[in-house]
Amino acid sequence: MESIRQSKVGKLIQKELAEIFRSETKNLFGGAFITVTVVRLTPDMGLAKVYLSIMDKNKENILKNVTLHVKEIRKRLGNMVGKQLRITPELAFYIDDSLDYAMKIEELLKK
Fold first, then answer.
1. To pair with 46 at 20 to 30 A between CA atoms, which of 13, 25, 73, 87?
2. CA distances from 8 to 39, 45, 62, 84 (A)
3. pTM of the full predicted structure?
């Protein structure tokens, strides 16, 4: 179960990462529409698992591109949340496929 502190820090990181992806999508990610859907933190807040919803056909390539730039993203995040957090957590990015799963279930229910 997630603590209140983990939840608050997760929301903060989600908001700031969304801003980073919004501003850098043209430069780093080829203009793909990337949304941060959820951020889950470990209890020691040393690792943040970031789930991304990517609106593009090449989701895997964009995810690889994001992981290539993880140091730059973490540095920018650290500059943004440096006053609120002592340590900027390590970032691990994953594709959030919950929307695809929901659409598939909806299609199956229509039949």
1. 25
2. 10, 11, 28, 11
3. 0.86
State which residues form the domain around 8. Answer: 4-110
Provide the residue type at 35 as one letter. Answer: T
- Helices (DSSP H) in the chain: which residue ranges? 4-28, 59-68, 70-81, 98-110
Task: Please tell me the total count of domains within the chain.
Answer: 1
**pLDDT tens-digit profile of 21-62?**
999 888 877 788 899 999 999 999 999 999 999 888 888 999
The alpha carbon of residue 32 and the mean position of all alpha carbons in its chain are separated, in whole angstroms, by 14
| Residue carrying the six token digits 């909806």 | 106
Output the domain CATH number for residue 90: 3.30.300.20
